[in-house]
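Exercise 3.2. Students should predict the tertiary structure of the chain below and write it as structure tokens, then compare their answer with the key that follows.

Predict this chain's 3D structure.
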Amino acid sequence: MESDEIKAIVKEKYGKIASQTKQQNETSCCGSTDCCSSVDYTIFSENYDALKGYNPDADLGLGCGIPTEFAQIKAGDTVIDLGSGAGNDCFVARALTGETGKVIGIDFTQAMIDKARGNADKLNFNNVEFRYGDIEKMPVTENKADVVISNCVLNLVPDKQKAFNEIFRVLKPGGHLSVSDVVIKGELPDKLQQSAEMYAGCVSGAVQMEKYLDIIKEAGLTNIKIQKQKAIVVPEEILLTFITKDELETLKNSGVGIFSITVYAEKPGCDCSPKTNCC
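Answer key:
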């Protein structure tokens, strides 16, 4: 599909999801009110209950990690959350950056922006804001953020290189990212790829792990490392509609599969080069 078509589908799906609670998303047959398929958008989600700053109203269960867990956010930092949804990771980040810091959430689904702003108003936060915008062209000035986070969103972006180039631009020299995302390791058989996409909406935009890390490197970011990695299990009853039991056992032992990863990378400090543009 063309980039604009992909973005239109994402907007439509997540606009519908924004109208529901996490519990509704988890019990819905496809994570949205129209129950058009068997897609489960909450399959990757992790438990935030024990985290400081967690607000259940902002948690729609759409993440695939907890990027703030590894983001090394300090008091006074400026944090940008890409694909901020109803504000879940923003409010956790705000608990870390404190009243002296600032958190900016960016999302291009207006229903999510409205929901997040409503949640922030209820919490009476004056240093958390939500901006409508495209991750491939962020409504943020350069060298703005100490930390960029994102949770199961960049895999949905059609042009991931543009997205990471933008992350490089908005990070301060010496700043860093911590992003959770969905990637593929090895070559999934076509039928399994299709079944995974049907079951878990985020898989359709996932790329090979090596390619994902190369994109980050191409953007100019350094000291790239995987902070956490977790295999995503598609239920066997789904897979066995496409492959035999023997093929399933072979797959289990092959190392091929779908993974959620949390990745760290840094923007180099100021060296007066055209790339950093900070002197």
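Discussion points: The longest helix spans residues 3-17. Residues 217 and 224 are 8 Å apart (CA to CA).
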